[in-house]
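Side project, low priority. Logging it here so it doesn't get lost.
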Amino acid sequence: RVQAGWRSGKLTPREMRYFEIEQKICHHEKRRMLRDGKLDRCEKRKLHRMKKHSNRDIWREKHDGERRRNW
């Protein structure tokens, strides 16, 4: 989603950086949760919520009317 928004010009550089950081945090959390070798139900739910929240934010930013300037 983030890459598609960037390619289409619908995400600004600031939004792109924000979502890259958000994705790194989500990835880090998943790795931390997998340290014991498995994801329990609570951990899966937390990851699902994080991804759902991120996807909603990306959709909102892509459709907020701001566009990247192509110099």
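Brief comment: Helices lie at 2-8, 13-33, 41-62.
Revisit when time allows.
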